[in-house]
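Please check this today:
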Amino acid sequence: MRRLPRAVARAPVPIFRAGLGPLLGGALVMVEHRGRVTGRSRTVVLEVVERAGRAGRGGVPTIVVVAGFGPGSQWYRNVAAEPRVRVWWGTRRAVPAVAELLGPVGSAEVLRRYRAAHPWRARFVSRALGVPALASGPVDAGLVARLPAVRLRPVR
């Protein structure tokens, strides 16, 4: 899998921190999580692959994201160890949420729906990540293992 330059990956962080998330059109979410070793606060900006239901607590709906760089991604490993997170989406800032790893069946369903609903985005992301199977072909165990999904559910 390809890696994005750190400067590119981190570019949206100040936009979210300034409350200008609407400029990103709801396609991205910033997730604050705890480092599993250090306990320090960390942030990552991820593509929203699915929104479930109406906006819940704090005006944020349940959001589904995918670990584009696989289950070895630091943010993914951190939320697996400590699922309590905060999300920035649109104008909403630091909304408490719980990260739920969806597992193989849930991840496969999310990837199928994402590809059907957003074929052009799937092709673009497929090329950017170097994962051709995301754009076409079966959503099999290999693809799901490379791209696990996580549900971010706002909580009180």
